Amino acid sequence: MKRPRYKRIVLKISGEVLTGERDYGIDPEVILQIAQEIKEVAGLGLEVAIVIGGGNIFRGVAASSKGMDRASADYMGMLATVLNGLALQNALEKIDVHTRVQTAIEMREIAEPYIRRRAMRHLEKGRVVIFAAGTGNPFFTTDTASALRAVEIGANVLLKGTRVDGVYNADPEKDPKAKKFNKILFDEAIALRLKIMDSTAFTMCRENNMPIIVFDMNKKGNLAKVLKGTKTGTLICN
Which of 62, 73, 112, 162 has its CA 20 to 30 A from that of 55? Predict the structure, then answer.
């Protein structure tokens, strides 16, 4: 079996991935499939940390555009990521994957507070760590949180699992003529204002030489393929 290219990864999962064919919420079949994929790569000896979004439940930016206070809306979005994190933890533990949820907003009754050294120790012991509640601060996206956590814990790569198979110059779900990039530099991604991640996340990864791979999380087996070096998705790097 081909061995993975990396030792420690951070996987960013968009909240929208969890909806499956639904318009809202969590599809139990989808979250179980994602858990199975994570179990497979963890079984290869990888240290796996996950940052999860909350867009399937609540989007702070969307709410603030309709008149809600931005800070309040963002905090609500952070709580949505905690719901998703607990759901993913439950799915993983049902298939015997030892998991810890750490939140950037303290809520000790349901999860550990985020402590960098504790998170790294969990990873060294083979546990999957789920980072929830973003950075704990409004005005920062979960994309930025994933870049921050990847740099903090010394990950080798940041993976972003979405509903599309890479980075395009336009939204491929709306524009059938959208062009896919197999590889693109951080400076180009920032200059083109690509919407796959925000510029703060791109800049943080660029400055810390943290490569990003964007791929289709809904396609079965894709996560393992990416980690074994199969050409899929889009590589963003220096």
Answer: 112
pLDDT digits (tens, 9 = 90+) for 44-76: 889 999 999 998 998 777 777 778 899 999 999
Question: Phi and psi at residue 215, in whole multiples of 5°?
Answer: -150, 170
Smallest CA-to-CA distance from 59 within 19, 88, 20 is with 19
Domains contained in the chain, number: 1
**Where do the DSSP E strands lie in the chain?**
8-13, 47-52, 99-103, 112-113, 128-132, 157-162, 167-168, 180-181, 183-185, 212-216, 234-237
Backbone angles phi and psi of 183, in degrees to 5 = -150, 140
| Residue 65 within any structural domain of the chain | yes
Segment (H or E) for 221: none
Q: How many other CB atoms are found less than 10 A from the CB of residue 130?
A: 29
pLDDT at 2 over 70: no
Domain that holds residue 42: 8-237
Is the pTM for the entire model greater than 0.90?
yes
